[in-house]
Records
---
Amino acid sequence: MKKFVALAMAAAMAMSMVACSNTSTTTPNNNTNTNTETKAPEKTDGEDKADVEIDASSFAELAPVELKGADSAGVGSAGQLLGEAIAKNVEEITGGKMTVTYFPNSEMGGDNDIQQGMIDGLLDYIVLQTAPSVSFVPEAAVFDLPMVFAKYDGDKIDEALNSEDSEFHKTISEKYADHNYKLLGYLQNATYRLTTSNVKLDTLAAFKDLKIRTMENKNHMAFWTALGANPTPLAWPEVYISLQNGTIAAQENAADTCASANFQEVQKYLNFTNHILYLNQVVMNNEKFDSLDPAYQQALLEAVQKSIDEVRPELEKLDKDSKDKLAAGGMEMVEYDDSFYDEVLNLDGVKELYADIDTAVDGLGTILQNELAK
């Protein structure tokens, strides 16, 4: 089973807040982990080393492997649930030959800290949202396309993101690998980042001059600017008090984050803007993955997929329960129909942002939109 222990390396990594709130500016580097456990045979052209059948006997002659995993998520959030499920499932699949020491809830630092730790070999796999990966994998900015998923259900989105037959999945996996990231999978179920506010955002005009706290992400900020709002990056620990004293009038996050932060105490409205998909990714140092025996590679991939399948149904419940808590605390729910999303997507500033992002990610935005539209 997964183990929760504190290693000495914990002191070497700065602590920060949850993935949806990290504002660390750690500079990525190109250092990679070259340590190996069991050296896998060289793959031939067209062969995926992980594409092998495994059973309990596959690990009998292999040396035990211990991985270190981490997330930067909040207590009880989707990121934590996913990361811990992987730890449990990989041990079960391998009969205990591969185990995971897991560090949840930012024990190993914030988004940038755990990514740098993965690159440096201090961590093996990590779970976090996609926005903080843009400074490490620029092509991850494709997920900054505002409202690109807003009209699709979880199954359709999952097919586009995780299916081996998806052109988008194939292409973005290659982009990750270019930066020494091994993409193991995405977790979502058509739940989104929403906007809390102290003014009702029931029309586009209501967004004008709205001082809203956002992550320090240029694409996110450009989106709010296109709506006429005034995006304001702010450290996560300062958000609650700033909402309370009126320094800012709004913030955006997934419903579970809003609920765990008790924003119902300082905000009047929960607006279902659905502007960014609530998406967690599981990534690993690509060279470390390649160093594993093919049986361990396949076990890890199976554990990730099994964990995604287990946690996905919980996301809808987590989202609903969080919204119910916020409503019970006095927040009014503001919902929109498709015409609102169409109106936003037709804004000149949003169209320009789409074009800019698509250019920056080498056409991945177009590939994603085509995949979703199939």
---
Amino acid sequence: MSKKFKILCLLLTAAIILTAVINLNTGFLSLNLHDFFQNTAQSQIAEIRINRVLVMLLAGISIPTSGFLMQEYFQNPLAGPDILGITSVASLSVAFYIFCSYDLLIPEFLQNSFLSLSAIAGSLVLMLVLLSMSNKFQDKSYLIIFGFLVSAFAGAVVSLLQFYAENQSLKNYILWSFGANNMVTRNQIYVLSILVFVGIFFCFKTIKPLIGNSLGTSYAQSLGVNLNQLKILIIAASSLLSASITAFLGPILFIGIIVPHFCRLIYNPSKLWQQWILNMALGMLIMLMFSIIAEKTQIPMNVISSVFGIPVILLMLLKQNKV
């Protein structure tokens, strides 16, 4: 482990701790330290802020990791869970669940689980389609065009569902799509943590095969890399990580693209183990910063991520065009 990587990790860790503390002190009311550890009149507000920090940390781990896996597998810096349509299809699955289950009597403790399962199922189906299409396209960049088409189709279907939806269902979907990080409860965080842990475990299994895959398919096979198993692990990890966050926080766009891009700029892109760690650390920092901005300005999380991400992606395209 190089000295530069250790310094980067220390700086990012210090920045994460600082932004987490600022997050806990950001809101309409000022809290004291004992509000977080004792049962006081403002303990519930303190718990909401703790939940907010925890869910931002989970999102910062999940979304960049999903984008990192996609980019390394497709060898395309513009690949990601949102660009390839995974987030859009997860949103469509959630929309079907919200609009079609309004009249069903579902216990409250099961509603959030079904919401998450619907998002994961939708993204899993799309990932299977994407990976099957990758065998037919000689140029994998065509998958990005395919992803845009899927996103447009999913958006059209969601608009149709909104047109015919009941008022309360429409309101619930709009509130979900805003990405309200203050609405996530502690029980939801437990469920989300399990999903993220499983996704991270699958990701851990993919890093070593991805190193061989980055050197070429023939070379990877000569090293004993099981390409079919790698494909399945990529499907499982990317779907779980991106869809679980989308289910609980709504669509948070572009973070899965720009964070891996920044990590490749600040450290050697060929060292995938270190790149993965940097992606998670930088992702947590950025999501905590977005949370502070969202609390200060009352702007939805997905709007902030889009305003931040779109100019970065445009600069990436311009830079590639010059090369």
